[in-house]
Amino acid sequence: MLENAWxxxxxxxxxxxxxxxxxxxxxxxxxxxxxxxxxxxxxxLQQQGYPVVVLDGTEQESDAAPGLQDMLQPxxxxxxxxLAADLHNPLSVATLPAARGMVQLQHKASITGxxxxxxxxxxxxxxxxxxxxxxxxxxxGMLQGCTxxxxxxxxxxxxxxxxxxxxxxxxFIGCGLMPRLVAMRPAGYGLDTVLKSLSxxxxxHLHTEPLSEQFDPLQPRQLQRWALQCLEHSETVYxxxxxxxxxxxxxxxxxxxWSH
Length: 260
Known about the structure:
single chain; about 260 residues; alpha/beta; 8-stranded mixed β-sheet; about 40% helix; disordered C terminus
């Protein structure tokens, strides 16, 4: 499970923060090992100079653990300010509870006609990558208007095939994007049966074959390659003044606390 931490940062700013940021939506599998692997991937990106912030939609904001909701509320001291990023300790990945904040962003987007991610930009613009870690029903609403596929982590236990398929279907129906299935398994494990079953279910019932990937996160090179692929294939969100004219994605570097 993700740990919650409110990090004020040191004011170190990403050079490309005023241009664009990347957003990586992830549907958790529920397996602790997968959460650990994603944390390791985020830490690797930070070591490469790309600050990451994780918005945890599996956790609700509270007085003891403020998060995205507090940044959205005018009465809060954090309101309308951008979360600072810090690369002094790359192994500390910024993480905020975000379940209520995500709901509020979706509600506001339905009123203004904007994308939820465009509304999110101002608060996390100092980071290179924003990981939206949330269950499918909450995440699908955040991805309205997006074109890049989210990631769905595949659980190891076969008893979870049905719930995983429901999550996949919810994403596909809810935002029109078929998730990329990722199974994190030991080297030499062979083709994962849960991954195969999920892919077959999508083909049979939804008539769409999801992209699938399987790798060993304990192999540093494989994990590092996957981390960079996540950065490359994530959704690009531009600064409001540039969004209308942006015709191409520009990947920049930048600074950010998910303490594991």
